[in-house]
Design a protein that fits this description.
Protein name: V-type ATP synthase subunit I
Order of helices and strands: HEEHE
Number of helices: 2
Strand order of the largest sheet: 2-1-3
Structural class: alpha+beta
Organism: Fluviicola taffensis (strain DSM 16823 / NCIMB 13979 / RW262)
Helix content: 40-55%
Largest sheet: 3 strands, antiparallel
Length: 75
């Protein structure tokens, strides 16, 4: 029983640690971040493209996301 409680405590600590580091991550330049009415969020890594191609690609992604009540912005 002590082993199960011990493992549960470790699992909870690791889960909370991973969640806090990923949820507070700063938005990176060159990524297209999208939000949807449903609450879903996603991003597309465009860092390998030149800035003008990043802007064009994010506009295309934004146009596609609008069909799903979404909005995308390039950071």
């Amino acid at each position: 029983m002590k082993t199960i409680v011990y493992l549960l405590v470790i699992f909870t600590a690791v889960s909370v640690g991973l969640f806090s580091t990923t949820s507070c991550r700063k938005k990176e330049k060159g990524n297209c971040y999208c939000k949807f009415y449903s609450g879903d969020r996603t991003h597309y890594d465009l860092t390998s493209l030149p800035r003008d191609k990043q802007e064009d690609s994010c506009k295309v992604i934004d146009n596609n996301a609008q069909a799903f009540a979404g909005d995308c912005k390039l950071k």
